[in-house]
Amino acid sequence: MAGRQNVEWLKNGLRSMRENEDDAVGTTTDAEYEWTQPGCEAATGTLLPTANPGVHEREPESAGEEAHVSALRGRRAVYKQKCDEVAAQRYTGFQLH
Fold first, then answer.
1. Which domain holds residue 42?
2. Do 80 and 72 touch, CB atoms closer than 8 A?
3. What is the pLDDT of residues 74-89, one digit of tens each?
4. Global pTM exceeds 0.90
5. How many domains does the chain contain in total?
């Protein structure tokens, strides 16, 4: 589900860029930090940072996809809400031009 949500969010972002005649996108350093910090903080309060990587990585869903740590595990609703807020504010934290 999270993968599908990300694809839809990106698709809608690209559509917004096209509608606003933007042809490039980047992020601000502050936005990158703000976006990743909650997941890092959530993981810090667990044994996740000390666990064997094989224990907490999820398996790839499709060929060519890498396994990764889901620091927001159990917090998908919070993640979706954040994505929706960023999109509603015309992708705040992204530099569109």
1. 2-96
2. no
3. 677 878 888 899 999 9
4. no
5. 1
